[in-house]
Amino acid sequence: VVAAPNASVVATQEGTIIFTGFDSNVGNVIQVQHQNGFVSIYKHNALLLKKVGDKVRTGEAIAIVGDTGELSTGAHLHFELWYKGRPVNPELYISF
Known about the structure:
Layout: E1 8-10, E2 15-23, E3 27-33, E4 38-45, E5 47-48, E6 55-56, E7 61-64, E8 78-83, E9 86-88
Antiparallel strand pairs: 1-7, 2-3, 2-6, 3-4, 4-8, 5-7, 8-9
């Protein structure tokens, strides 16, 4: 997702933070567990604003857009949506 550097990354839906960490390829990563088996994943963040176990609301800032990780080519948000352990097309569920 194209985004300005230092823009807020917001939770797509309410949920609980289940992972925060750094991966050399995709940089700073944060994951949110939502109801009904959905997990949203946000990669290449400059800064993570939440920790594991935090509850978040829809639209709440959880990270700052960045350019971290070896696979990044500039400031942007790499967003993934998973359903019951399988990746799904987020455009079928979310309006960007």
